[in-house]
Amino acid sequence: SSGINAEYGDPEVLAYLKLTFTDKQLQSILEILPLPPRWTTIRVNTSCYDRETVKLELESILDNRYSIKSHGVLNDVLIVCSKQKSSLNSTSSGKVIIDQKCGKAVLRGADVFAPGIKGLPHLKSNSSVSVHIDLSHKCKRGEKNFAGPTAHIADGVLKMNRKDIFKNMVKSGVAVKVTGRRVDVPCLNNVLEKQMFLQNLPSIVTSHVLDPQPGEVILDMCAAPGGKTTHIAHLMQDTGTIIALEKVGHKIDKIEKNILKQGLKSIRAFKWDATNAFSETSISVTCPPFGREVFDRILVDPPCSALGQRPQLSNQCRISEISSYPAYQWCFVADAIKMLREGGTLVYSTCSFPVQENEMIVVRVLDTFPEMELVAAEPRLGGPGFPVKGLMEEHASLVQRFTPQHGGVDVDTIGFFIAKFKKLRQSGL
Fold first, then answer.
1. If you average pLDDT over every residue of the chain, what do you get?
2. Rounded to whole angstroms, how far apart are CA atoms 160 and 170?
3. What's the whole-model pTM score?
4. Lowest mean pLDDT among 82-86, 144-148, 286-290, 399-403
5. How far apart are CA 222 and CA 414, in angstroms?
6. At CA 391, angle to CA 411 and CA 206, rounded to 5?
7. Residue 3 pLDDT
8. Which pLDDT tens digit goes with each residue over 330-370?
9. Could you count the other beta carbons within 10 Å of the beta carbon of residue 91?
10. Judging by DSSP bridges, how do beta strands 150-158 and 340-350 pair with one another?
11. Residue from 81, 102, 304, 351 carrying the catalytic annotation
């Protein structure tokens, strides 16, 4: 147990989750959500680099604290895990209070950067400090001795003092060099960027489930930040065409940056709202909007409540927002089916827990589109779907649901859902 429970600003969100989980399941999830997965999963760009060679390069960069192994099922995945048990010091010169955004980064392996600090006592540089997340969002910037609820997530050495951070308003740079953290994960930012990509395991599985083939025409409807998009390109040996849509400008920039880093030629990214990707009158196969029966495979990873993301300490979303997602997600799915060719594949995924965003979407597809068949989402690393009205047991066994729990790399993940469909015939026939 982390000693911290994930919290929700709106108590109705907990009630909503109880429609998916038993009380015991939910309590277990609330305890594990504040921590990142113990295992760091890395996708190797195997269309250009050999996994074993990248493993050896990474071993030479990381110190002996970490073991690096190849995943037994996914041939493009490396797993990094600490060899030692994490421990935090009970004594230090003082407490540094950081905001939750900074806290998530620290839990994922980063140092503490100046903009993330909210509270700090008078201490000299190079003092040993403990790093605490402000759980209540109530620590005012510049506080010396914050007394509200916090969570001790790391220890480190102070590299900036109060004057640097609060008076001189230093906007960047490492303020605390982390020496130990609650979960010992490596910092791999900017490491071997051409050779590998840091990615959550279920996200990697999703692209394998899509199973893109060289030369095909693929649509990734909600592509940012580009992890799955670039993975699809590598699985296709960078041949064929991948259309990547994203409606937010700065997110498109991230996709373009990742395409450039990995030297990929098959991806065409467009700033476009994917809910308007389909047009009945369009004959375009190269830029949106698209007409009917254009794509061999479509990945629908739509906006979701993201309740499965880790680390997650507190979620301030209101139930009105969270419960609105299924209707929005349906817009993407319904249009995707129209744009999918006969014999084509559609993969639907979310990083969320509620059955309303997952199994119930599957039921609606099967009820609304008789031309769509649910097929096994393989390779299979997750568990079966949850029982909901209209979903037969055999259908539940075809989807994959990742529910975070302590254990090996395949279960200590973010929360995630994957379903795969085949289009048996043209829509409307």
1. 94
2. 9
3. 0.94
4. 82-86
5. 19
6. 40
7. 62
8. 999 999 999 999 999 999 999 999 999 999 999 999 999 99
9. 7
10. unpaired
11. 351
- Nearest CA among 82, 110, 90, 101 for reference residue 152: 90
Dist. CA 132–CA 200, nearest whole Å? 25
Long-range CB pairs of 408-413, under 8 A, 24+ apart, other chains included: 408/39, 409/37, 409/39, 409/41, 409/71, 409/79, 409/81, 409/201, 410/201, 410/381, 410/382, 412/37, 412/38, 412/39, 413/37, 413/200, 413/201, 413/202
Q: Single out the residue of 235, 228, 238 nearest to residue 258, CA to CA.
A: 228
Per-residue model confidence as pLDDT tens digits over 383-423: 999 999 999 999 999 999 999 999 999 999 999 999 999 99
Q: What number of other Cβ atoms are within 10 A of residue 291's Cβ?
A: 15
Number of DSSP helices (H) and strands (E) in the chain, helices first: 12, 20
The Cα–Cα gap between 333 and 331 comes to 6
Cβ within 8 Å of residue 95, ≥6 positions away: 119, 121, 129, 130, 131, 132, 146, 150
Q: What is the pLDDT of residue 428?
A: 67
Compute φ and ψ for 153, nearest 5 degrees.
-115, -15
Tokens (6 digits) for 229: 């998009």
How far is CA 89 from its chain centroid?
Answer: 30
Q: Which residues pair with 97 in a beta bridge?
A: 119, 132
351 is catalytic: yes
For residue 205, which amino acid is it? V
Beta carbons of 384 and 310 less than 8 angstroms apart: no
Token pair recorded at residue 185: 């994960």
In single-letter form, the type of residue at position 219 comes to L
Strands (E), 272-339: 295-300, 314-315
User: Is the N-terminal amide bond of 121 cis, ω within 30° of 0?
Assistant: no
Structure tokens at 325: 């997602």
Q: Are 310 and 404 in contact (CB under 8 A)?
A: yes
Total residue count of the chain as it appears in this document: 429
Distance in angstroms (rounded) separating the CA atoms of residues 162 and 143: 10
Residue 2: the pLDDT is 53
